Amino acid sequence: MNRAVTRWAYNNLLIGNIERLARGLRHAPSMRPERFGITIDRDIAYGSLPEHKLDIYRTTALSTPAPVVVYIHGGGFRFFDKETHWAMASRFAREGYLVFNLDYRLAPHHTYPAPVEDVAEALRWVVRHAPAMGGDLDRLVLAGESAGANLATGLAISCAWRREESWAQKVWELNVQPRVLAPACGYLQVSQPGRHADSHPIPPWMASRIHAVSDNYLPTHAQPTAAHAYANPLAILEAASAPERRFPATFAIGGGDDPVRTDTERLGDALGKLSVPHQIEMYEGGGHTFHALMFTDLARRAWDDKLAFVARHLAS
Question: What is the number of other CB atoms lying within 10 angstroms of the CB of residue 121?
């Protein structure tokens, strides 16, 4: 069996196992949303395309007005969906948040900027409809992990700076100012995927996976142009001057063993130069998206830290 076939088989086995684990944990007695009084409205259309669906999570005892969370799943812009990320949405809902858990179009059939356009459309839908559901848009949180962290950061940028991209203009026109951004294990720059191996040793199979993410989402990443800007929200922030509107206080986590952890570290440096309140936490022993394994002590610690930061900044 040649190396390409071996990588294909390994990747599909890995992704399949992760999907089965994520979906299966929904039925674990200790994690079932119903145990915590969470109700879920499923497959609500936020746009005109089949992929434009979201789920709404809330507790039966939701106090209104409630803070709002927009959650964007990860998966290298290619895998997973809102159903594999139900546990993240549930965790926020347990704390009294009104949560909107999004789907968006996936690569390689839908390359950049399709996912960016989709999450911008979803945010517009949330802004129009959340108040009628008891949501408080003055306490808006944007959250996601890996690819979802990239997309959530892009939304935050569109809220804070007036930009030329059509989807960004539509977000700017909403005139909303998210209070908190919570990117986890973000892949925040799709161009130059080899940069991670330049900063620390990465196994060849993992380096290949990182390159595959960039190849699938932005096939022309080797020749970056201004039109690619939102594939690299980290680079936007690093080059930015003071925001025109408030950029949200940011709590970003990374794993000490995460091969793309340098993006999270650079995010802290960029936000510091912009004088944005932020907290960057690197959890030793954590791999990429370690926080998704909520039954582990490390993931629980990361979630406790995140939720404490969010609550503190929503209350300020």
Answer: 20
